[in-house]
Amino acid sequence: MSENNPRKTNTSPLSENAAGGRTSSTLRAEATDVPWVISRALNAEGDLHIELAQRYPNQPLMSLFSARSVGGRIPRHLTTLSTQDGAAHLTFEIDPGTSYMSCAYTLSSMLTLRFDLANLSDLDRAQWLEQIRQGKERATILWGKMRWRSDYLVWSQKRHYANVYAFSPRQIEAAARLSPDVSTKLIAWLGQYWITAPSSAPNAERADW
């Protein structure tokens, strides 16, 4: 993607798929409470990669990956991404019974910001994961029907790293940078534990939003 002129490519910061299946004009027409940085991208007034990177210029680099399952008969699946010095962590937790996922950004074992991604359909999850699997340089939003009115993620892919941003309507934001190896392992882990097998959801329909 050209960071200086995002209008010249069809993989814009908020393509129809990245924005959850709705066009920019539809989103603009129906809401006035769109977060400012998202609104700028919808109106082609800025590059979401650049806007978010400028907000968070010194993101910790997650270069270590560790996964485990905890619990009894239906264990929960957790993966922890961390910096080399262990000063910062990003933990993803999946409830296999509901496919609910939370992510927690922790700094120095003192402060944790938790985001709950509970209002997602099977289609929301599958489309987002497919987008980031492609590895194209673009920003892809993970949200459901509530969109910015509930917690959501932005996966911002660059050539040599990926940034994972989390936002909440509670005025909480967080960011972390992933190394290529950790990005690959996280995507594979999400595909294994977070995506419902097609056979278990035979009547799944395309989202109507």
- Helix/strand/pairing category: alpha+beta
Shape: globular
Q: Cα-atom Rg, whole angstroms?
A: 17 Å
Q: Report the average pLDDT across residues.
A: 82
Strand order of the largest sheet: 1-10-9-8-7
Strands, total number? 10
Query: What is the helical fraction, as a range of percent?
Result: 10-25%
Order of SSEs, N→C? HHHEEEEEEHEEEEH
Task: Summarize the biggest pleated sheet.
Answer: 5 strands, mixed
Give the number of domains.
1
Query: What is the first-to-last residue Cα distance?
Result: 27 Å
- Give the helix tally: 5
Percentage of residues in DSSP E strands: 25-35%
Describe the structure.
With 209 residues, this protein is of the alpha+beta class. The protein has one domain (6-196). Helices cover 23% and strands 30% of the residues. It contains 5 helices and 10 strands; from the N terminus they run H-H-H-E-E-E-E-E-E-H-E-E-E-E-H. The strands form 2 sheets. Strands 1-10-9-8-7 form a 5-stranded mixed β-sheet, sandwiched between helices. Strands 2-3-4-5-6 form a 5-stranded antiparallel β-sheet, covered by helices on one side. A hairpin with a 3-residue loop joins strand 9 (162-168) and strand 10. The longest helix has 14 residues, at 180-193.
Key attributes of the depicted protein:
disordered C terminus; 30% strand; 23% helix; single chain; 209 residues; alpha+beta; disordered N terminus
Task: Explain the layout of strands and helices.
Elements: H1 24-30, H2 36-42, H3 48-55, E1 61-62, E2 64-70, E3 76-82, E4 88-95, E5 100-107, E6 111-117, H4 122-133, E7 139-142, E8 152-157, E9 162-168, E10 172-178, H5 180-193
Parallel strand pairs: 1-10
Antiparallel strand pairs: 2-3, 3-4, 4-5, 5-6, 7-8, 8-9, 9-10
